[in-house]
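User: Hello, beginner here. Can you help me understand these amino acid letters and fold codes? It all follows right here:
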Amino acid sequence: MKLQEYLKYDGLGLAELVAKKEIQASELLELAVQRAEQSKSLNAIIIPMHEHAQQRVQGPLSGPFAGVPFLVKDLFQEYAGYPTSYGCQGLKRVGYIPETNAEIVNRWEQAGIVTFGRTNTPEFGIKGITEPDAWGSCKNPWHLKHNSGGSSGGSAAAVAAGIVPLAGAGDGGGSIRIPASYCGLFGLKPSRGRTPWGPSMSEAMHGAAIQHVLTRSVRDSAAMLDATHGEEHSSLFKIQRPEGQYLQLMQQAPKKLKIAFSTRSPIGTAVSKDAIQAIEHTVKLLTSLGHEVIEDQPAIDGMQLAKDFITTWFSQFSYILSQIRAQYPSRDDDFELDSLALAAFGAKTSALDYIHNLNNWGVYTTQMNQFFDRYDLYLTPATASVAPQNGEVKTPVWQKPVLKALLTVGQAHLLTQGKLVDQIVRENLKWVPFTQLANITGLPAMSVPLYWNKQHLPLGSQFIAPFAREDVLLQLAAQLEQAQPWFPQYQHIKI
């Protein structure tokens, strides 16, 4: 098999070739490594795992993805005995090596994949772009001046470029759907509790964060969800199992769906012409397929939801940073300025404020359940614009000296007082204001690649479904994929 032929297959397609003995897993690995070398300019793969991969292809492999090259995100997807950095200079410096596999990794391995590297991610996954000080920017395969998004940016760049047909990803505030939107991929965030976090964690951020994959085909995502879903001993949440296999369920045409849509930013920030045009195009496509599409949005205070998300995220991150500092000798320059500031903000959140914030999460869940009494799905842009340029999303110039000064005297939390907190929320989320709703409510959501602009940069359409209805999302995605195939778009990527 030549490289150009390798690029034409999704994961299940490659696995079928291996099963038929038309190619060996070792040959697929060679092709993946070849494409990775060819795509070095992306800076997608930061920690190689070639020794592990070589051992895997020499032994027997079974499962739906037996022999398929794979990459994992360098965040919460640990392999025992292999370095992981969480995108952090400090953990990179001390050479942190986990002692156990993450459970999601075990399930991927049981599905037969061959992991040969870890992918770039922002420090602790805290940003919607991938530009960590520890590893540098991860570039977008569609246009190298642009970023791949975050926090699963390295995985997204690798999949879009054809290094691998699918890769590990995670989503705590949009980190699957944002890079899927920027890189023209299919990105499904499952429902709260659908995939495991064990053995060292029972959940992440009250179930707002969930792990899955980024793919070029819908069926790869469905098949991998079949292979990984379900609780384990550490699980805090147990979710209703599907009535059948997702791979089979997605082959059934969806019923006529009543879909609400909106292009308005929930935090009142600007939405690009590209994002509006992407949704207008998707609405026309849905209508042509027989679905009813109505402009409407849930009765939710978007700015308050964003504040509640930020409060939880800042507080959780403050705890993570304190745990790392307790375990490893660290210096302030081990962590990025933005990270230190977020931790400082989070450390000053009172218990009363935090509980009030979590109670609000329940309110939003109720409001979405009421919304879904009238609609089957909710459609928005996945992102407010196409991928920003590298270096475009950064801490405002005015904030940096203020942050440094306040951090020095232990008063950075003062920036969250008064109207400044609204400004911080808008600055942090103006690029990606649509994704946090599904995380807070625990609802499944997906970004579907249906639009490319004149510069051939993609922008995804986000669909949110009622709780535990990944089957409806996958059915609709398969229908959209058949009506407007996006796989041919990848041939336009030139690296």
